[in-house]
Amino acid sequence: xxxxxxxxxxxxxNPEWVPVLPTRWxxxxxxxxxxxxxxxxxxxxxxxxxxxxxxxxxxxxxxxxDALAEKNSTTAIQxxxxxRSLLVIGLVAFLATATVAAVAIFSLLLQ
Length: 111
What we know:
- This protein is an alpha+beta fold.
- It has two domains: 4-74; 84-111.
- 41% of the residues lie in helices and 27% in strands.
- It is built from three helices and five strands; from the N terminus they run βββββααα.
- It has helices spanning 61-73, 76-81, 84-110, and strands at residues 16-21, 24-29, 32-39, 45-49, 54-58.
- A five-stranded antiparallel β-sheet has the order 1-2-3-4-5, with helices on one face.
- Strand 4 (45-49) and strand 5 form a beta hairpin.
- The termini are far apart.
């Protein structure tokens, strides 16, 4: 059985980039909005996904489009597997649990 989190957000192969403003481009795939790129006042390009969540800020429009395409082509689980912050949090939680267990075992042995 395949859950919805195992599938890419959008079957994102070659979106159609629609310029809706001089500083905003929207990626559409099969009539569905797949994200947007906005040019900031400082000349950078900010990409957001289809839910308005920030993907990042980039120097070029092509870099912003590529980042959005990469985000849309991976599943949430794949992104979590690549996340360093989740790895660090997991290691810290493991060490905290192991420390509490060691202290508990040591205190039981001393009684």
